[in-house]
């Protein structure tokens, strides 16, 4: 990991390129096909100059929709892929601490799609403590609710910039903890679009 971090520090990409870097993949985002080709080609040239190997067979695109790490990216928005939703909603209630921890790990990856995630799942964390495992009505209700929230999660984004874009941060505090969400609105939109939910 340290070696790859050093390599990425050596490669200077100007902020004009809207990219996401995952250890072995790069996604180039853009609005126009030609723009994406040009960005992609420049990034490939920078990486080749920095001695990275690139398999041409792995270079794909452009596309209006891609699926990557369980996320469906479409028109600048990202959402939980339907296959992931189906797998999560089909899960049976955990019968042990380990199963509960595994379930929390799975849904925790998607937490930024779920308003008040921490408050919803807090009863599930109670059964992961060192006490004897006891799955009660409170845990069952939280389990059912979080699966329902995953099934109805909204698409996030796209991140927009410009003078007509308003960033709106909503926050709430209560007995069950803190939560906040970031939304963007442009002129003419009533509600705006969420960029993420945190709690």
- Distance between the terminal alpha carbons, to the nearest Å? 29 Å
Low-pLDDT ranges: 1-11
Order of helices and strands: HEEHEEEHHHHEEE
Helical content stands at 25-40%
Structural class: alpha+beta
Structurally, how many domains make up the residues? 2
Oligomer: single chain
Radius of gyration: 21 Å
Estimate the global geometry from the Cα principal axes. globular
* Mean pLDDT level: 83
What is the strand arrangement across the widest sheet? 3-4-5
The count of helical stretches stands at 6
Sheet with most strands: 3 strands, antiparallel
Q: Report the sheet-strand fraction.
A: 15-25%
Protein model, in words:
There is one protein chain. The protein is built from six helices and eight strands, in the order H-E-E-H-E-E-E-H-H-H-H-E-E-E. It has 199 residues and is of the alpha+beta class. The protein has a three-stranded antiparallel beta sheet. The chain has a three-stranded antiparallel beta sheet with strand order 6-7-8. The longest helix has 17 residues, at 33-49. Mean pLDDT is 83; it is low at 1-11.
